[in-house]
């Protein structure tokens, strides 16, 4: 199972955040990424840096023969076509595409790696805007490290936020 998180909170060359996510999904097959399923698009509060517009987020279940690094390069290419400029961590952006899981592969690259690809994505367990759509399209998905169902992790996160 290959999962990609999508997010946008700035209007760019592809239109509004909502339009940008839809256009990114349309563009993926041109990069040998086939969409199997896509969650509903949802508006969410910003994560990390909160003084910015709300995001539109979704998660897509995809198929590809691309290796993880090659897939990530393709996702970065799509981001650039959508006007993404990397300035501030967790800052506003026209498009953010994150590789969440690649067939359960677990990899923590050496510290000497430049921009290493960590799998699964290290922030999954802290982000309701990833877990909610993930549960919607892949209810049986388990975190490759903790082996916990996404729905269980999501319930724990809700409890933490309430408490």
Description:
The structure is a single chain. The chain is an alpha+beta fold and 163 residues long. The protein is built from 4 helices and 5 strands, in the order E-H-E-E-E-H-E-H-H. The chain has one domain: 2-Layer Sandwich (Alpha-Beta Plaits). The chain has helices spanning 17-27, 68-81, 128-137, 150-162, and strands at residues 2-8, 34-38, 42-44, 55-63, 96-102. Strands 1, 2, 3, 4 and 5 form a 5-stranded antiparallel beta sheet that branches. The radius of gyration is 15 Å and the shape is globular.
Which helices and strands appear, and what pairs or packs with what?
Layout: E1 2-8, H1 17-27, E2 34-38, E3 42-44, E4 55-63, H2 68-81, E5 96-102, H3 128-137, H4 150-162
Antiparallel strand pairs: 1-4, 1-5, 2-4, 3-4
């Amino acid at each position: 199972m290959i999962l990609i998180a999508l997010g946008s909170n700035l209007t760019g060359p592809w239109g509004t955040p909502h339009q940008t996510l839809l256009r990114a999904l349309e563009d993926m097959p041109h990069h040998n990424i086939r969409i199997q399923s896509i969650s509903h698009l949802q508006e969410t509060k910003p994560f990390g840096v909160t003084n910015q517009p709300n995001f539109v987020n979704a998660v897509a279940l995809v198929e590809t023969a691309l290796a993880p690094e090659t897939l990530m390069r393709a996702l970065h290419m799509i981001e650039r076509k959508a006007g993404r400029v990397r300035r501030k961590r967790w800052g506003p952006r026209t498009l953010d595409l994150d590789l969440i899981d690649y067939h359960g592969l677990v990899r923590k690259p050496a510290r000497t790696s430049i921009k290493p690809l960590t799998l699964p994505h290290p922030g999954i367990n802290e982000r309701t805007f990833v877990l909610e759509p993930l549960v919607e399209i892949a209810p049986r998905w388990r975190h490759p490290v903790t082996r916990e169902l996404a729905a269980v992790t999501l319930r724990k996160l809700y409890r933490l936020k309430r408490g």
